[in-house]
Amino acid sequence: MTTAEERVCEEIGALEAILMDDVVVRRVDNVPKSLETVVHPSTGDDTEQQYVCVTLEVKLTPEYPDSSPVVILKNPRGLDDCVLASIHSQIFEKLSKSLGQPVLFELIELVRENITKSNLPSGQCVICLYGFANGDAFIKTQCYHYFHNHCLASHLIAGKKYHQEEREKLPNWQQAQFPQYQQTCPVCRSVLNCDVEVLKKAPPPIDSTNEPPFHLTDKMKQLQADMAAILARQRAKGGVVGSGDSGPPPLTITTPADNNATTPSRHVQASISGQGAAKEAGARNGLPASPDDAPGSPTARPEKVPYRGFNRRGKPGRRRGPR
Ligand SMILES: [Zn+2]
Ligand SMILES: [Zn+2]
Q1: Cα–ligand 2 centroid distance for 140 (angstroms)
Q2: What is the CA(141)–ligand 2 centre distance, in A?
Q3: Distance of CA 125 from the midpoint of ligand 1 (Å)
Q4: C-alpha 87 – ligand 1 centre gap (Å)
Q5: How many whole angstroms separate alpha carbon 3 and alpha carbon 15?
Q6: Rounded to 5 degrees, what are φ and ψ at 106?
Q7: Distance 138 CA to ligand 1 centre (A)
Q8: How far is the CA of 299 from the centre of ligand 1 (A)?
Q9: Which of 57, 92, 174, 307 is disulfide-compatible with 170, CB 3.0–4.6 A?
Q10: How many distinct structural domains can be found in the chain?
Q11: In the beta sheet, which residues pair with residue 59?
């Protein structure tokens, strides 16, 4: 083993003593060639408070430390590209200043310091659409989705209330069979078991409280006018999916034949009678009928007919027509 190799062995040995199982070192003939470690933010022992992480891979050159190692950041979680780019440039600077000296531990610390500063999930809370600001109370679910505590509490309370209302619409004998309310993730529907009483104590998202009061701007008025024009155009073409429709259900099931057919009616009929059939089938199974008889409500979909796509207002003859 050369002196240079001995120095590297010494440095890596020290690193392993500190990081223990958290670092994986690949060796060839006992000489370290590369190492990999998943870097988490510094939160003491509180792993629950770690919302981001990144894997740092360092490939040592034969001349290391007299030449810079190759450093790769991979599998970032909860970190946006700006943060990663910033870490990359800091690594580059650190490497160029540290030629000839051991740098591995400092590299890991540099990454850790950066992700500790960014220990907030990037993106928005899907419930309120505000981001996560420093100081916001938010929750990481087991499915790795993030919500403000305040928002998730409102969502779960509303969900439970809706469930209760649906149950009370049923006759007594059906209520007993109605499934129990179960909290689910608003994003992926994984089962949640949150303490709503605790969550709802959290203040609203900081960004929402800093938001200036709403007022209708000229830009919004223009947007409304534009959308109204689009709506009118769609109505004229018979393609509106919306309230106040007295025609056939806007969501209908089509069959392959419809794609070629020019005579409509068949599946329009199918969807109307299918709606009734679905309700009857629901009643047979002891399931609640469609909560409202709104056209196009999900329960209005006929049973056992494979879903083949949307059709505007059950007017297939017009669907493929010229615009
Ligand atoms: Zn929110
Ligand atoms: Zn989820």
Answers
A1: 9
A2: 7
A3: 4
A4: 28
A5: 19
A6: -65, -35
A7: 8
A8: 30
A9: 174
A10: 3
A11: 34, 70
Q: 68 in a domain, yes or no?
A: yes
Domain boundary among 210, 228, 248: 210
> What is the domain range of residue 17?
3-117
Specify the CATH number for the domain of residue 67: 3.10.110.10
**Long-range Cβ contacts of 92-101 (<8 Å, 24+ apart):** 95/68, 95/69, 95/71, 96/68, 98/65, 99/65, 99/66, 99/67, 99/68, 100/65, 100/66, 101/65
Please report which ligand is nearest the Cα atom of 136.
1
Q: Cα–Cα distance between 321 and 25 in angstroms, integer?
A: 65
pLDDT tens for each residue of the chain, 323 residues long: 788 888 899 999 999 999 998 899 999 998 999 999 999 999 887 877 788 889 999 999 999 999 999 999 998 877 888 999 999 999 999 999 999 999 999 999 999 999 999 887 777 899 999 988 888 999 988 776 889 999 999 999 999 999 999 999 999 888 888 999 999 999 889 899 999 999 999 999 999 988 888 888 999 999 999 999 998 888 888 776 655 556 555 555 566 665 554 444 444 443 333 343 333 333 334 444 344 444 444 444 444 555 455 544 444 444 444 44
Domain CATH code at residue 196: 3.30.40.10
Ligand whose nearest atom lies closest to the CA of 147: 1
CA of 193 to the centre of ligand 2 (A): 12
What is the 187 CA–ligand 2 centroid distance (Å)? Answer: 5
Q: Which ligand is nearest to the CA of 127?
A: 1
Q: Say if CB 125 and CB 147 are below 8 A apart.
A: yes
Token output for 53: 């992480």
Distance 147 CA to ligand 2 centre (A): 10
Expressed in angstroms and rounded, the spacing between residue 140 Cα and the centre of ligand 1 is 12
- Token duo for residue 102: 């051991």
Same-domain check for residues 107 and 25:
yes
Same domain assignment for residues 81 and 8: yes
Please report whether residue 175 resides in a domain: yes
For ligand 2, an ion, list residues with CB under 5 A: 143, 145, 185, 187-188, 190
